[in-house]
Amino acid sequence: MEFINTKNSDVSDLFKDLNLPQNVSKDKRKEIEDYYKFKQYTLSSNLISRLQARHDIMQKALGAAPPANSVEDKKIMCYSLLRRPVKPKQIGRAPILGRPRLFGGKLLDYIQVTQQHVPLIISSCVSAINRLGLHNQGIFRVPGAQVDINQFKEAFEKGEDPLVNITGRDMNSVAGVLKLYFRELKEPLFARDMFDSFISCIVDVESEEKCVENLCQVVKLLPRPIFIVMRYFFAFLNHLAEYSDENMMDASNLASCLAPTLMPIPEDKDQVQYLTHTIELIRTIITHHEEVFPSDGHGPVYEKFAITVTIDGEEDEDDEGISERSLRRSPSDD
User: Fold this and answer.
1) Facing residues of 323 across strands?
2) Burial class (CB within 10 angstroms; exposed 0-12, middle 13-18, buried 19+) of 273
3) Which of 201, 228, 210 is CA-nearest to residue 282?
4) Residue 67 lies in a domain
5) Residue 278 lies in a domain
6) CB of 172 within 8 A of CB of 161?
7) Euclidean distance between CA atoms 208 and 237, whole angstroms
C-alpha cells in the first residue's frame, strides 16, 4: 500500500536476478554466455541419438525386429523419426475394401465393387427424365431446389433410390443431382490423361465426318466400363435433344451445359479457347452417338422408346389391352 500511495516509486530492486552477480566484468559476462550456449548445444546435438535409443526401446517393447546394425540403416531410421512420413506411391491397383464413395469417388472403382454396369444414380435419373422430363423446358439448364438435390444425394450415397415415386415437378432437381454427381467425380467421365486425345479429334479437322472417325479411334482406348456408361448416357442425351422444340435443349445447348462437367479443362490450358472445343466435341458425340459408341451386344444400352403402362379405368383399349392414354415408363424400371 505504501508503494501504491507513493508517486514515482522505484521498484527496480524487485526485478533484479538474485542468482547472478550484479556487478560483473565484461569477460565474466562473456564466460557466462558461452556457458549457456555450450549447454544448449550439448542438449540439442545428441537429439538423433536420443531418438534412436527411444526407437530401439519401443521396438523391443513391441516385439519388433531388432534394430539395424549398419550405420546407414541407423541414419535412415533416425531421419525417419524427424521427418514427416510420406505416403509411398501406389504401383498398380490395390484391392478396394468396402463400398467406395459414390459422390467424389472414382467411377471405375464403384463399378468394380457394386458390379453395376451403369451406376444406380445414372440409370435412375435417366429413367425419371425419360418418363417425366423429356418435355421439361430448360432441363439441365434450369437449376433445381438445393434442398431436394441434397436429399437425393444422401439417399443415393446410401444405395437407395429416391426417385421411385418422383413427380414431374422435381425434374430440374433430378437433372441437378445427376450433374452434381458427374461434377464431383474424382476422375471426370472424360479422363484427364485423354483430354488432349479427345481435343485433337475436333481441332483443325476439315469435316464433321472426319471428327467422328477420329472419335471412334479414341473411344476404343477407353476402359470397357467407361465405354458402356458413355454409350448409355449419350444415347439418352440424343433422345432428349429430339424434343428440343418443347424443352429448348438441342444438342448444342446440352453440350454448353454439360461440357464443363463431363470434360473439365486442365488448369494449364487456355480456359476460353478450350471451352469452345469441349462444347463442340460434346455436341458432336451427342449428334453422332450411334457411330461413336456402336452397340456390340455387350452391356446395357439405353432404350430410346418408353413402354406404355395401362391406367386403371381407361377406355378405348386396343387388342393387347394397352390404353392409348398411358404413362411413360422406361424398360429399366422393370
Assistant:
1) 317
2) exposed
3) 201
4) no
5) yes
6) no
7) 19
Look at residue 240 and tell me if it is in a domain: yes
User: What is the pTM (predicted TM-score) of this model?
Assistant: 0.64
272 within a domain of the structure (yes/no): yes
DSSP letters along 107-149, please?
A: HHHHHHHH--SS-HHHHHHHHHHHHHTTT-TTTTTS---HHHH
Residue 139 neighbours by CB distance under 10 Å: 23
> How big is the chain by its Cα radius of gyration, in Å?
34
DSSP state of 167: -
Give the pLDDT confidence of 93-143 residue by residue, as tens digits. Answer: 444 455 788 899 999 999 999 889 999 999 999 999 999 999 999 999 999
Question: Which domain covers residue 258, as residue numbers?
Answer: 107-292
CA distances to 17, 33, 320 from 28, in Å: 16, 9, 113
How many folded domains does the chain comprise?
Answer: 1
Among candidate residues 175, 82, 94, the one with its CA nearest the CA of residue 129: 175
Whether residue 227 contacts residue 194, with contact meaning beta carbons closer than 8 Å, is answered with no
Cα(252)–Cα(7) distance, rounded to whole angstroms?
Answer: 86
The answer for 41, left when phi > 0, alpha when psi is -120 to 50, beta otherwise, is: alpha
pLDDT tens-digit readout, 18-27? 555 556 666 7
DSSP class of residue 102 equals S
CA distance 5 to 235: 92
Q: Angle at CA 277, nearest 5°, toward 273 and 279?
A: 115
Can you list the pairs that 85-92 forms with residues at least 24 positions away whose Cβ atoms lie under 8 Å? none
Check which CATH number belongs to the domain holding 147 and give it. 1.10.555.10
Instruction: Dig out the grid coordinates for 112 from the structure.
Output: 468394380
